[in-house]
Amino acid sequence: MLDLKSKLLAAGLVTQEQVDKATVKPPKSIAQNHKSNAAKNESNFEQYQRQKQLNELKNLPKSEQYDLIRKWVNHNRLDVVSGLPSENAQKFFFQKSDKNISWLTLEPNLYEQIKEGTAGIMAFMSHHGLTHCVMPRDIVEDVAEVFPEWLRVLKGHRLEPQTNSPDATNC
Q1: Residues 6+ apart with CB under 8 A from 121
Q2: pLDDT over threshold 50, residue 148
Q3: Count of H helices and E strands in the chain?
Q4: pLDDT at 58 over 70
Q5: What's the average model confidence in pLDDT over 11-20?
Q6: This model's pTM is above 0.85
Q7: Rounded to an integer, what distance in angstroms lies between the CA atom of residue 96 and that of residue 119?
Q8: CB 3.0-4.6 Å disulfide test: which of 6, 66, 69, 111 passes with 2?
Q9: DSSP calls for 45-68
Q10: In whole angstroms, what is the distance from residue 167 CA to residue 17 CA?
């Protein structure tokens, strides 16, 4: 089936030049430019909100800092707390602040996110003591600003603990 342009061309009502001109993409509309600007503004707003939350966290008493970080963990944690891991899960080894080695058993997608640096491993003060979790990079960075000793693994971060081996995760 022919489209309208082809039918008009076949009937001799338009020239090939007119058809070619009509098929050229029109320039960005004002609405598209507005959407682009709105996305940039939203990104700036998110950065502002994140910085504001980080500043608030820094100014809280320690017990309230622990509570707020626990809430962040409960809402954003990437690793599974309960249940059994799949057959494909692997141990991801990391060094704790006391220089001992620990691990989390992670599904392959989380393992890769940590290797890529889009997620990280951090400690946090749970209701049962200091424990570890996998969190998105931005949250791990924010917590490391307040509690640098809680950072365990975050590829490319300036505070990431250095190990003797090039890849401590393959211990």
Answers
A1: 92, 94, 104, 114, 132, 133, 134, 135, 140, 152, 153, 154
A2: yes
A3: 6, 5
A4: yes
A5: 83
A6: no
A7: 17
A8: 6
A9: HHHHHHHHHHHHHHHS-HHHHHHH
A10: 62
Alpha carbon 139 to its chain's center: 9
Distance CA 8, CA 17 (A): 12
Strands (E), the chain: 90-95, 101-106, 119-126, 129-136, 151-153
* Strand, helix or coil for residue 134: strand
Handedness of CA 131, 134, 135, 140 (dihedral sign): positive
Angle at 68 between CA 54 and CA 82, to 5 degrees: 125
Instruction: Show the tokens assigned to 2.
Output: 């022919």
Greatest mean pLDDT among 12-16, 27-31, 40-44 lies in 12-16
Six-digit token pair at 86?
A: 């799949």
